[in-house]
């Protein structure tokens, strides 16, 4: 079920991810391991959150 403000939330999360994880183009599933899986340090994830 999609929430009423889901598009705004998706846009915000994508913006945060792109600012903190350079090279990340989208948070959408692209069905290719090389595009969908990323090695990230836990401190980088903590900083983004």
Task: Compute the CA-based radius of gyration.
Answer: 12 Å
Largest sheet data: none
Query: Mean pLDDT, as a whole number?
Result: 91
Strand content: under 5%
Unreliable stretches (pLDDT < 50, length at least 5) are none
The total count of strands amounts to 0
Total of helices: 3
Terminal CA distance reads 24 Å
Helix % is 40-55%
Q: What is the overall silhouette?
A: globular
Order of helices and strands: HHH
Structural class designation: mainly alpha
Protein name: DUF6900 domain-containing protein
Domain DUF6900: 9-49
Pfam family, one: DUF6900
InterPro entries: DUF6900 (IPR054195)
Describe this structure in words.
- The structure is a single chain.
- Helix content is 53%, strand content 0%.
- It contains 3 helices and no strands.
- The longest helix has 15 residues, at 6-20.
- The radius of gyration is 12 Å and the shape is globular.
- The N and C termini lie far apart (24 Å).
- The mean pLDDT is 91.
- It holds the Pfam family DUF6900.
- This is DUF6900 domain-containing protein.
- Residues 9-49 form the DUF6900 domain.
